[in-house]
Design goal:
- The protein contains twelve helices and twelve strands.
- It has 364 residues and is α/β, with parallel strands linked by helices.
- It has a seven-stranded mixed sheet with strand order 7-6-5-8-9-11-10. A five-stranded parallel sheet has the order 2-1-3-4-12, sandwiched between helices.
- The protein is globular and about 80 Å long.
- It starts with 13 loop residues before the first helix and ends with a helix.
Length: 364
Amino acid sequence: MRVSEDVLGRRPSSDARSKRARSSEKRTPQAALKSSSAKTPQTAKTPKRTKTKAKDAAPGSLPILYMLSPQKFMSPFDCNMAVDSGYKVVLPYDNVGLGDVGALVQDAIFSRPPKAMTGLFIGGKDITLALDMMKAARRAMVPPFEVSVFADPGGSFTTAAAMVACVERVLRRSYGRGWQGLRVSVFGAMGVVGFSSAVIAANEGAEVRIVAHDAIEPLEASAGFAAERFNVALHPVAGQTDALKSKLLKTSDVIFTAGPAGVNIISRMQLAKAPGLLVAADVNAVKPYGIEGLDLFMDGVPLPGCSTLGVGALAIGDIKYKTQAGLFRRMLTASQPLDLDFRDAFELARQIVSDAGRDTKAKI
């Protein structure tokens, strides 16, 4: 303990006081500051962050899909499906005519290296035009500048493929048979889904009738197109009245209804009078449904008041969604350019429902 000299009764001499004053004067402000800073602990310096430059993607490695539609817009459904299936850039073109296809395709392929991840999708609502645009696109390509082309106008190819595949699963599961020799009646065959499903069923060996709701002449033209383009026989028949529809049901094994949304085509009473009808499928998801009494999720259970097994729109829609997504992914992973239409869609839809059936058995 330091004791002051004053307390001890000894006052410091004048010489001692003078030395202390001189010592204090020698401490400059800079020295004091240096002394103070020496006592303060210094914080560690934060290392500088080095910016890493992202590697540029290799030319042609970014998945780009060009989507052509002869209508005034490209379907948002198809755009969403493409993005969710793996395409990073989706470029829709609308009001595209058949004569525009070649130039658009060549702009798309020559601006990227061969084997670039470029795809072409063709939409719209016209099957004939979509297939013609698909041919025009392929003709415009010059090896090795070739890309895959997928046509699905109005979602008709994948929806029709899903409906036929779902009904085929019910036929095999419940009746142990396929399409060969079955009598199939298609209501709404003037539409893209109805016509596509008729062609797929006929191609699998079914005897297909396409039902007229108004004049029969347009269906006769459709049948001629199917024979010429796909080498299948479709038989136009009259179905403008309830009596005509009831007569058709009595001589049908399977019916497809693919009419406009919210339009009932087949009544419960008509179904009850057709005991030989095995399966009825409908793609209409808006009430009233195309087949009265059909539930959207039905997948091979009896319709109310009869023994006919029903297949509903959402059961079909689930397979349609997986089929379209699968075809987009197939384009992305293909080592060679592909041309995908309703036949490829049916092949994949059939595989999907078969895999789903095996998974169900495994769980049981």
